[in-house]
Amino acid sequence: MDFWLADWSASHVGGNIDAWNLTEANANYTQGNLSQPMDVPDTTGYYITGYTGLSVGAIVLTAAAVAAAILTSLRGARVMHDRMVHNIVRAPLRFFDTTPTGRILNRMAGDQGSLDNNLPGNMELFLRSGLKIVSAIVAVAVITPYFLIGMIPIIVFYYFMQKIYRATARELKRINLMKESPVYSQLSQSFGGLSTIRAYRAEERFTKQMMERLNDSFVPLLYSMGAEGWMGVRLVCAGAVIIFVAGLSSVVAGLHGLVSPAWVGLAISYAIRMQVQMFSVVSAFAKVEANMTSVERVENYSRVPGEIYERISGNTIPPEEWPASGTVQLESVSARYDQTLDPVLTMVTANIRAGEKVGICGRTGSGKSSLTLTLFRMIDMFEGVISIDGVDISRVPLTLLRSRLSIIPQDPVLFSGTIRFNLDPEEDSDDDELWRALEIAQLKDVVTDLPSKLDEMVTEGGENFSVGQRQLFCLARAFVRKSRILIMDEATASVDMETDAILQDVIKVAFGDRTVITVAHRIATILNSDRILVLDQGKLVENDSPDNLLKKPDGLFTAMVKANK
Ligand SMILES: Nc1ncnc2c1ncn2[C@@H]1O[C@H](COP(=O)(O)OP(=O)(O)OP(=O)(O)O)[C@@H](O)[C@H]1O
User: Fold this and answer.
1) What tens digit of pLDDT does each residue of 67-107 get?
2) Which residues line ligand 1 (CB under 6 A)?
3) ipTM beyond 0.90?
4) 332 in Cβ contact with 386 (< 8 Å)
5) Which PANTHER family match (predicted)?
6) Ligand 1 centroid – CA 367 distance (Å)
7) Which of 166, 178, 378, 396 could form a disulfide with 401 if both were Cys (CB 3.0 to 4.6 A apart)?
8) Ligand 1 center to residue 344 CA distance, Å?
9) Atom 29 in ligand 1: which residue has the minimum CA distance?
């Protein structure tokens, strides 16, 4: 378009060679040297039509380019986000044990935020400015090729400046992202432990820590601004030299009659614009590169090896009613939390019959919870076989295996939603069944007293119920699921002794024909079990009925019962 305008103005001021000849010829006619004036064709319509066409073309192309840039980058960010979330929710337990929550939140919020907000704009600016510079250099070089000679040292200068600046900006961005993780960690820890912080009057200490971490995370940003200023000053000076070189070479070319004044003006205006574009292109490129750190970090989380839920070759697909009876067989089972860690279970062998009520006890850290986790294939079972109703669970697809067992873990989990949703998320049961489950879990009166009964909302994490009540809701949920095998890992630890005793009796009746494995700290909870497994440092040291175990005066179970009295 600029070329068109220059050509148009040159055709009127005489820069264009034909027009120049016509102007001279007509002057001769006026002075009487020619008998007739030469005909000057009216080119206004031609130029206006061309200019309109070019303008419309530029508008369409710019709109298409902007739309393409926005849509592709949004799509890219969405694809990367979905892949990361998909992978993280499938990551094994070990990943969450070894990765601070703040780091995960930072990737999900900070890095993803860079992909959503910063990268598209900077990428678009870099491409636009880069193309403008290329077109400006080509344009000025066409008008006056001497310009290229002057540009060589300036380009070398730019090359070294951007190299220093980019390396600095990249590292500062990396440090900035690293420094943000403690802020997210502090935030999630503070919210998680709000009541403890207040109870210990530690608000001030935590606020101070938060401020310090925030300050720390802002320092790299300040350095980034400083680096940008450093580069800006140098690029603006170099830009002034570009203008000088372009101006000088085109004026010299104009004075020698090689180009018309219109073209000289065009070359200088391009050179002036180039100064701004040069700064934009270096700054945008450095930001694109720095934001690519976020792309790399998000991509890393998209590659965390996840648990395999789907059916894979060699899998066994058990029948629909599996496990029909609920026998559990452990043969020389050894397990660990990671290949680099020591085993937490060593050669555990036990047979649990269908419908049996089994209690597991042992000292803290003896491996009780780990044993329950092996049934769900949550930890690495590197030796032995666990069979449920004769089916080797290592061959059953994970989703299927986990859907056929029920567990009430140490930390009861309730979801935001109604009580109905929490009891029966898949909406398989009717209200009568839900009320029956609540009755068994000793919660009927509590829910009856609520204004909306089953439709009462449970707040985030079940905060509007006590920990004991949350455990009872989890118990009711397990009743609703009707699994043949129920595992309770200290599921009644936060319930008072009296309610616990009632529950154990109710469970015996309600789960009469089902297998119940109960891990308990309180020996009283499991004293009425059919059988007791006693673990010590990951080994199964006792395995018999409570009565038989109590007959061993130096047995571990006897010692624990005595200690609990
Ligand atoms: N997430 C984990 N990562 C690595 N090691 C773990 C992890 N959880 C537990 N362990 C280790 O495994 C061993 C058995 O722990 P486990 O939680 O199974 O014991 P427990 O008998 O259930 O203890 P408690 O009665 O305190 O719940 C312990 O040595 C413990 O340090």
Assistant:
1) 888 888 889 999 999 999 989 988 988 898 888 888 888 88
2) 97, 337, 341, 344, 362, 364-370
3) yes
4) no
5) ATP-BINDING CASSETTE SUB-FAMILY C, ATP-BINDING CASSETTE SUB-FAMILY C MEMBER SUR
6) 6
7) 396
8) 7
9) 365
